[in-house]
């Protein structure tokens, strides 16, 4: 996710607790979706779609933090 911000992500993960929580929650949801789609864990189509929507909201929030941090001198 956001390879162009790899260095900034690494920095924020060590200095910004809010960013770290957003990032970790997104990764947790991503793993849940993968497990459900691979039938490793159970989940209905609706549950998978709900998790995907939650991931998108988090991704938007992560992007907003990245853009703000990038703009800060």
Description of the molecule:
The structure is a single chain. The chain is mostly helical. It has one domain (3-71). It contains 3 helices and no strands. Helix 1 (6-15) packs across helix 2 (17-37). The protein is elongated, with a radius of gyration of 14 Å. The relative contact order is 0.18. The model has no long low-confidence stretch (mean pLDDT 96).
Strand content: under 5%
User: Averaging pLDDT over every residue, what do you get?
Assistant: 96
* Element pattern in H and E: HHH
Count every beta strand, where a strand is a DSSP E run of 2 or more residues: 0
Total helices: the number is 3
| Integer-rounded radius of gyration | 14 Å
Which structural category fits the helices and strands? mainly alpha
Helical amount: over 70%
Q: Give unreliable regions as ranges.
A: none
User: How many domains is the backbone divided into?
Assistant: 1
Counting copies of identical and different chains, the oligomeric state is single chain
For the termini, the CA-CA separation is 23 Å
Shape descriptor: elongated
Biggest beta sheet attributes: none
Keywords:
mainly alpha
Summarize the structure.
The chain is an all-alpha fold and 73 residues long. It contains three helices and no strands.
